[in-house]
Structures
1.
Amino acid sequence: MELVIDRLTKQFKNKIAVDRISLTLHEGVYGLLGPNGSGKTTLMRMICGVLKPTSGEVKFNGIDVSREEFRDALGYLPQDFGYYPEFTAYDFLLYLASLKGINKSRAKEKATELLELVSLSDVAKKKIRTFSGGMKQRLGIAQALLNNPKLLVLDEPTAGLDPKERVRFRNLISRLGKDRIVLLSTHIVSDVEYIASVILMMKNGQIIHKGRLEEIIDVIEGKVFECSVDSRTAEHLIANYPIINIREESDKTFLRLVADKTPCETAVAVPAVLEDLYMYYFNKEVKKCE
Amino acid sequence: MLMRNKHYNSKKEKRFNLEKELKHAFDTPPPARKEQFINRLDYPRASRFEFISSQIGYIRKRVWICSLVLFMITLICLYSTKASVSLIWVVSSAFPFISLLSISEIAKSTTYNMEELEMSCKYNLLEVSLIRLGILGLANLALLIGIMLLLTCKTDFGLDFGFIRLGLYLLTPYLLNCYGTLFVINRLQSRETMYFCGAVTTFVSALNILLATQVDEIYTEKYRICWDIAFIILVIFCVKELVKLFKKMEELQWNSSLTA
């Protein structure tokens, strides 16, 4: 099983959203991490054949993205999707099962099974318009699994899920990743940290890092510091370094930050986690967004 | 005989006991890679015919109900009132609303933000739309032929105009509305698009009524050439807009959110 992305590029007018990305993915969970506007959704849409690339190609087991056989092997959860107002959760799954070419009796079985899996069995016959954001998201996850896809592409799958559902979802994805390619995008670092076997970091339409968690964290090892400082020093540090965590203590301010060298006398180097790396790379973007 | 039965039963019992003993003696090994094995199995596929027929069920009931209502109204008008030429403009002014319903079925993926999901399915948005368009086109054609047959059988329109000319009078406003609504759909992309299409339909219908009531002899030989030209031009324009619409369905249209 192999998904080959070859020099994939997408240009919207004068903005290059995805810039010559080449990747080869095999069975496993791949976490695409990047800030808003880094090109994650555009890349995923091209992988699913929803957007045509400006140049480059996508092939799954040698089958081109434009072919029906490719879509037959694909499960896709878009970042934002709608539904027909008259649909119940069950109708929604049956409808998409029909578009996925599943026969009626199998579709009914599969819809019931998946509604159970995403804990929506009790509201299966309720109109989707009465659902909360989290329920709608779970329904979206269910539809992506209808055809037992070999390639599963999930754009921001944990958005709107409560912590309990999030943990359940992570476990489900880890199981699914054993014998298929799962590509999920998020800007929630902990999701990727827990479930992705390979992390892809995206910035300005390019993959800037690819590897296992411990490999990519290596870049920042020894550059993460923690310190408790007075308010004046805290202000100075906040203004000059990527801050990962701030906690107000009785008379001091606790800071966790990323710096190339010791930022102040009291700072102690601590083991790095993925969030530190994220802040290290995307601090400028985060500040821009703020 | 009794002895033989007894012997057979004890043999059966021994075998059963042996099986039971064996089950106790050996633990069944847990299934290895069961899930992976199940995942490798293919799921039952629907044939193309099954897929096409399933799509009829996803066309909203209002399309069928409105078509039936129009047919019934024509039928009632023919039997309860004295048929006059005014029946042509009444029916032809109602036809644009039938086309609006059909077009709304094609555009509903965009209206309800389902296009991205539908584009990624095995039978994608383009195929689904072509199938729906085929089904709705056939249904509209059946309605048109049904009404034309009613009009020619129950009135003198058949003798006065001929079947084709009658079709021309009924179809031209329908085509004008198809063109107008397709033009709107191809250029606007929002949930409100259908309201604009509704406005176009009302305008076309009103225009038809206005022309038919204000222009004397509009359904006579004098204006035949105008009808012929309008019909041909509208067919060409409709085909052009349909091609544009299908091209749009091949990929998600650009908007600012796509760069996110």
2.
Amino acid sequence: MPAVHDLAEPRLVLEQATKSFGSVRALVDGSVTLYPGEVHALLGENGAGKSTLVKILAGVHQADSGRMLLGGEPVSFTSPADSRAAGVSIIYQEPTLFPDLTVAENIFVGRQPRKRGRRIDQARMRRGALDAFARLGVHLDPNRPARGLSVADQQIVEIAKAISFNANVIVMDEPTAALTTVEVARLFDVTRALREQGAAVLFISHRLEEVFAICQRVTVMRDGKFVRTAPIDELTVDDIIRAMVGRDLDELFPKTPTEAADVALEVSNLSRAGVFDDVSFTVRRGEIVALAGLVGAGRTEVARAAFGIDRRDAGEVRVAGTALPNGSPRAAMAAGVAFVPEDRRQQGLVMDMGIDHNVALPSLSRLRRGGLIRRSAERRLANDWAGRLQLRYGRMSSPVSTLSGGNQQKVVLAKWLARTPTVLIIDEPTRGIDVGTKAEVHRLLDRLVADGVAVLMISSELPEVLGMADRVLVLREGKLVAELSRAEATEDSIMRAATGQAAGVAS
Amino acid sequence: MTVITAPLVRRMFRAEGLLRARELAIVIAILVVFVATTINNHAFAEAHSVQQLLTGASLIALLAVGETLVIVTRNVDLSVGSVVGLSAYVVGDVFVHHPHTPAFVGFLLGTAIGAVVGAINGLITTIARVPSLVVTLASLYIVRGIDARIVNGKRIDPVNVPHAFTEVGYKTVLGIPYLAIIVAVIVFVVGYAMRTFRSSRDLYAIGSNPEAATLAGVPAGRRVVSAFTISGALAGFGGALFLAEFATVDATGGTGYELSVIAAVVVGGVAIFGGSGTVLGAALGAVLLNTINQALVASRISSFWNQAVAGALLLAAIAFDRWVGLRVNRRMQTAEGAHRDV
């Protein structure tokens, strides 16, 4: 689509918007121009100012300076209602629906169509919802409650809400972070439908392949500043990454070859009825073993059972030769196992607690004297690890919920590494974090194995698996179907094993 | 309404599935208790006994209606019992000093007193952003204190309450007590409104997800104040009904009602953390709890069991909700697993 924006007037222009919070300059030069009928990527590392820019468009924050034009007219939004009334809708990564209300009510909350006597016109409301879904080409029952909808469906509801408002600027803030491939494909279909109907879509994602798949133009930000805008076909992945990080990322996955030593974790014949069956593997000190497979193949479940969060029905787990009792994470921790879960907000962190408390949590027994926790020791431990992991934070005592995703993940890592584990189980180590932090996490894992830690890594990102793992175990429907060496593991061989397409590689 | 076609029934169940099921379950429970007790003690099914069942449940059911509005918004109103006491005494006091006051003025006055207390509860909760649990706990004591000050050791005696007023408390139409009819009308009117108007759907939205409600432009503060005001007004009206029913009141009238009301609301399937539940369910919850109390009396079981049974029923109701929730979750998960990949 070469010339679409040469003909059209820009729908929305944000020029040199600035925003400071106290002494923190979140946005130094927020600039972006959106044309009708384009999907426009906004890229940048966490902390580059994307969220602040989005919140200015949403009317949640007001820019300190700069200007915004909508259809050529200067506008300023003082509230989310202003922004929405002007036709700007924001689709957040985790939509905030009303779980108890129906899908149709969620779309029309506060502006339900009414009939005589100010009564809600249920039939018209249902039709309105169905209309919106039809325009998006999706099927959803408008009468079902929103509770239990998948994240992907919740986003669809939000998008339906946006188009029922006749929004013509739609901002999608990392919509794909929690979506499966099929769901991403559907979201893209919906996004294309929006584009064809003339909406301007601002699309934020950390996954560059998605940007290349759906976007026409790209704007890159760094350190709160606009870096460049360019049509996608004039850019390569390297160009974008260089613009984002301001330097060349020589190696995204810097795994250095290590010598695997003694077996640290030995899992034999592990079974849990209906979840996984007869899974056996070992992880040696100084190696990274990846558990690959489709979502639902039982990867996380195997890891949870090995750590003792879920009970196993059969089998054995040994750490450095000693068998672990069934269903006891405490025993696993005592034996030197650490577990970094996939969902850091729900499982990895206590979001409202300070950084220091979170880091110290698994180490409290070490920080105790006479039954009392020494605050100073807690601080010291947290400061030490914050330094080692280059944590970016305001105050040690501020709640971890105030940190960016990448920094939250570092806190989770710090909290477990502070126990100096010999076995680290890590589930989706880099989900939802930016390219720069991702590389830091990978470098950290690399350093850990070099120091003789045994790492069991679960990852849905094949490049990460291929880049980091010494060996790849592939699970399919709860069974271990392949074990691939670093040399054998390719995107193709893993996917074949994971999907059960025989062709030679399956064990 | 005698012919209910199968598709209609199916649609009803699909539309508000679990809620409908809950109300049906309570009705069945009421019938089971009623029939079982009647087998033991035939007097239980006699007209005056049934009338007593309905009258006895009316006041709590009425308060449960207002409480539902508040709890649906993820708040709670603990002051209803005190409001009943204050309203009942003040209305009685007016009759003492102005014996010719028309009966309806008494009801209006009671309602107004409650509405004022409710509005204050709501305003403090929303403006000062104090949890309503604390605000209404405070007003529970303050209102009771004001009541005690006004009562000052006296009491209202039946001779001082006009006949036209107490009639409402004992008269019947076709064997159905006035009291029950009044409350039933309120239950159905408020129940209809809760399904039908934007403002009442907003209450559910606020309780379901307060932040999203604000983002969606729902005037949350105003709605919560209204919910409290209505709850207060119904409690004040309930105070007048209290006086009409018992024709006497001292400083302790309505003491402890708030807990019975909340028990009824929870047994009736209103989620204690807001967002879901119906007025009808809450009112039926009140009827169920009262029926059980009376059944225990009729079966000559020690009154100690009254409260124990109420407690057990609460636990059962919560366990039921939890069980349903888990089942729904599990169904969602398997459905999700089916279409996910990579």
